[in-house]
């Protein structure tokens, strides 16, 4: 599947419209056609998005190579003992599989508690990737907005835990596989005596532990240490038969594969499948919903939902003049109608702010009984339609003291249409800047 997908392009366009001066021109085109403007001169946003994706992939490859190096380096110091190359087999297994087992347990626990968490998951591996990605992005001349848009899409909270699963399981799997390969190489070229030792425990404990670890390899037909091998391998042993050494070596290599590599391969496979499913059903943000709605084709029905009762005199009337927004209005009740940008900072102290981007939200807003004065903030980049007229008529019945506020910082494509609507509805009209009152 070619990258970026339509969903990725939509996320990029929505982020750029929210954080930069870039705007998709409508012109009656479909969404897929409009998104081609991402690569229309002088912009090359889509190409930069692809380069950001390749940079992230290279960072992942670099991280996996680092895991392989660490896995290969961990084995020689643990496997090649000092004198007579005696190695405590249980200490060696703990070094190679201990942290892996703890990490795997924590991942399983995080899956169980993730439905109850309010914050998206994070991990050390992903933090490293994001840090390195941010440092390298300027070197390949990536736009800060494109780089941020890519990381926001790649590390989406809805699918982030499965991305972390892919990275974690793959990294640990490569670490253990490199350790296994290095172990095979060292055991082929060195004679190692495997022993066990203890101060507090007795030999029966080691018999039980060895039997538990050996059960699965034994079911697969692998020759593992028996009771005689265990009793013949205390630390004070001066001689160990070749067969006993091979049995311990078989147990070591089989444990690395069965209890280390294979669980990580399974976890990475499950995480990758879930990541692709979650990416396919990735929910749209409010800005992406508004952008998609802007390019939806008009649906025609045989029934007239709301007839046009405007008269010729309505269209001949002069558009309403705009007035400066009073400062006390910033403390009132606000509705953001079909709003695709972030909430203006000037409304941080408002009594209430409601996003009115769909019919359900608008109906809930109309059902409120305590509406006194309502300020309806609109973006002059979008055009009012018949549905807008119907909503304003309905809200005037609930709240006669209604004021229409045009956001002055946005492109003024349809400002005159909103002024004409305010004239027809007989409501006040204000202008609002980023700071609030003019």
Describe this structure in words.
The strands form 2 sheets. The chain has a 6-stranded parallel sheet, covered by helices on one side. It folds into 2 domains: 6-286, no CATH class; 319-432, 3-Layer(aba) Sandwich (Rossmann fold). Helix 4 (89-113) runs antiparallel to helix 7, helix 4 packs parallel to helix 10 (242-280) and helix 7 (160-189) runs antiparallel to helix 10 (242-280). Strand 7, helix 15 (415-425) and strand 8 (428-432) form a beta-alpha-beta unit. The chain has 438 residues and is of the alpha/beta class. Mean pLDDT is 81; it is low at 298-306 and 310-318. The protein is 55% helix and 8% strand. The protein is built from 15 helices and 8 strands.
């Amino acid at each position: 599947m070619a990258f970026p997908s339509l969903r990725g392009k939509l996320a990029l366009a929505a982020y750029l419209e929210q954080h930069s001066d870039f705007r998709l021109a409508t012109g009656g085109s479909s969404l897929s056609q409009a998104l081609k403007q991402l690569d229309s001169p002088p912009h090359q946003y889509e190409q930069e998005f692809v380069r950001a994706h390749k940079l992230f992939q290279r960072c992942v490859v670099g991280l996996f190579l680092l895991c392989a190096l660490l896995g290969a380096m961990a084995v020689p110091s643990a496997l090649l003992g000092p004198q007579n190359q005696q190695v405590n087999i249980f200490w060696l297994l703990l070094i190679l599989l201990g942290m892996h087992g703890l990490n795997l347990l924590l991942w399983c626990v995080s899956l169980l508690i993730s439905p109850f968490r309010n914050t998206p998951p994070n991990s050390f591996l992903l933090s490293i990737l994001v840090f390195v990605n941010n440092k390298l992005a300027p070197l390949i001349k990536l736009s800060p907005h494109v780089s941020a848009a890519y990381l926001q899409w790649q590390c989406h909270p809805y699918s982030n835990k499965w991305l972390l699963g892919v990275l974690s399981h793959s990294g640990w799997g490569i670490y253990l596989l490199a350790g296994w390969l290095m172990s095979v190489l060292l055991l082929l070229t060195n004679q190692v005596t495997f022993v066990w030792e203890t101060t507090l425990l007795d030999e029966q404990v080691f018999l039980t532990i060895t039997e538990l670890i050996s059960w699965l390899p034994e079911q697969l037909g692998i020759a593992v240490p028996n009771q005689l091998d265990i009793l013949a391998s205390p630390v004070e042993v001066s001689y160990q038969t070749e067969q006993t050494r091979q049995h311990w070596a078989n147990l070591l290599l089989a444990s690395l594969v069965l209890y280390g590599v294979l669980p990580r391969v399974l976890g990475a496979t499950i995480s990758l499948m879930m990541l692709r499913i979650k990416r396919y059903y990735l929910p749209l943000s409010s800005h992406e919903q508004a952008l998609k709605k802007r390019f939806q084709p008009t649906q025609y029905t045989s029934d007239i939902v709301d007839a046009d009762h405007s008269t010729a005199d309505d269209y001949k009337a002069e558009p309403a003049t705009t007035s400066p927004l009073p400062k006390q209005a910033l403390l009132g009740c606000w509705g953001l109608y079909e709003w695709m940008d972030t909430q203006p900072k000037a409304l941080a102290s408002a009594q209430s702010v409601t996003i009115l981007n769909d019919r359900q939200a608008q109906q809930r807003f109309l059902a409120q009984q305590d509406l006194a004065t309502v300020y309806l903030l609109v973006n002059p980049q979008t055009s009012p339609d018949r549905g807008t007229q119907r909503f304003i008529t309905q809200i005037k019945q609930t709240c006669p003291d209604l004021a229409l506020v045009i956001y002055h910082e946005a492109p003024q494509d349809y400002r005159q249409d909103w002024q004409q609507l305010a004239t027809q509805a007989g409501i006040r009209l204000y202008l609002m800047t980023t700071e609030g009152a003019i």
